[in-house]
Amino acid sequence: MDIENLKVDLKERLTGGRYEHTLRVTDTAIKLAENFGESVENAKIAALLHDYCKCDPLEDMKQTIESDSNLPDSLLSFHHELWHGPVASVRIEEKYGVTNQAVKDAIFFHTTGRANMTKLDKIIFLADYTEPGRNFPGVDEVRATAETDLTKACYQAARNTVRFLMEKNNTVYPDSFHAYNDLNQQVF
Ligand code: DGI
Ligand code: FE
Ligand code: FE
Ligand code: FE
To answer: Less CB within 10 Å around the terminal CB: N or C of the chain?
Structure first.
């Protein structure tokens, strides 16, 4: 994978703000991979590609979900914010030949998390939540926890997100609950 070419593609596909977010997520993910003993190369590629489809037309994402047997159609009855990770996980294989299942899964689940998250899943989920441009309520606590405890930091991020969605009377995708419950059981 030629990282410089990839960055040129990302700059074309994403808005300026989204591109800058992607670079901050990548820096954050690399640090987490170094601190917690994960492949820096996989963390870097997953982070660079995690929002690859974030700015795609909704109709294109919808068609991909309908036609690709790896993508659950149930996504379509939940908020379209949930579509870009799963769709990216298939698009990046077509475009860049990314077949590494661990990388594809970390991208697929970066918005919701899931039960039994791998270390790479946790790193991308957490890098996306804690990158320095984020100012969610509670993010500083999660940043502090991420210095020492990857699983507990993911738990706090998952809990904050589910709580935030419920406060706004939004629906919560099942994988978000599965992540919350499983991380809770790992922490307590
Ligand atoms: O793509 P990013 O903005 O960098 O971050 P993301 O992929 O984590 O997407 C965040 C959005 O997704 C945020 O507005 C909250 C929303 N979200 C996360 N989990 C769920 C969710 N929305 C719904 N409706 N249900 C969920 O379970
Ligand atoms: Fe995202
Ligand atoms: Fe499908
Ligand atoms: Fe993101």
So the answer is: C
Q: What is the mean pLDDT of residues 63-92?
A: 98
What's the 50 CA to ligand 4 centre distance in angstroms? Answer: 6
Domains and CATH numbers, the chain: 3-135 (1.10.3210.10)
* Span from the CA of 3 to the centroid of ligand 4 (angstroms): 18
Probe residue for ligand 1, chosen from 161, 163, 164, 180 as the CB with the greatest number of ligand atoms within 8 Å: 161
The Cα 87–Cα 105 span in angstroms is 11
In this structure, are residues 106 and 45 in contact, taking their beta carbons and an 8 Å threshold? no
ipTM for the predicted complex: 0.93
Spatial separation of the C-alpha atoms in residues 66 and 70, rounded to whole Å = 10
